[in-house]
Amino acid sequence: MRFWNLSTNKPVSLTDNFPNHLGGIYAIEFHPKQSNILAFSGSQGMINFWDISTQQSLKLLKAQVGNIYALKYSPDGIILASGGDTIRLWNPLTRKPITRLNGHISDITTLKFNTNGEILASASGDGTIKLWNIPNKQLLASLKGHYEQINDVEFINKEQSVIASASNDGSIILWNWNGNLDELINRSCQWLGNYLEHNQDLSNDTKMLCPHY
């Protein structure tokens, strides 16, 4: 694991002294309230809680069987979500399990909380996105449109009703999972207008695709 200085674009340190961690590292996540605490995961279903100020392991958690590809703290830091063959929610303070969220039929590739931490978006190798209500631990929606693995998802508007997803199939899809169609069309047109504005080599016919331009 490397830590980088963004001012110099050079590594600050290389940390490879993880005696209890075997195999590759697939996900890293800083605690949103304690910037010195880093959680990372990889093969063998392990989550390691690391204090970067002391370079010491705080806790090694056997979370599940198999690889863990995704980690995400809730914005307030009271929940850590992990994704491997299924989704698990943890209490980072006690390192105890809260619950399991089942539904995907392939490994979880990414996890994202919305801004208030009440909704968790998960994506998977099965090509689906699922939205979970965290307070009641229930599935809110399941979105299917990609035909290959989804690598990333993001909540992208203030109301958190629009999600963008990126897939191995080469596409990015905008999902209006909890909003209105007019909002999605208007926002998409604004993004397209920004793209056209900054790509002056495009033909006039192409620029006319969006009245925003």
Automatic annotation (TrEMBL):
Pfam families: WD40. WD repeats lie at residues 18-60, 101-142, 143-176. The keyword Repeat applies. It comes from the Bacteria. Transmembrane segments: none annotated. SUPFAM superfamilies: WD40 repeat-like (SSF50978). This is Uncharacterized protein. It comes from Crocosphaera chwakensis CCY0110.
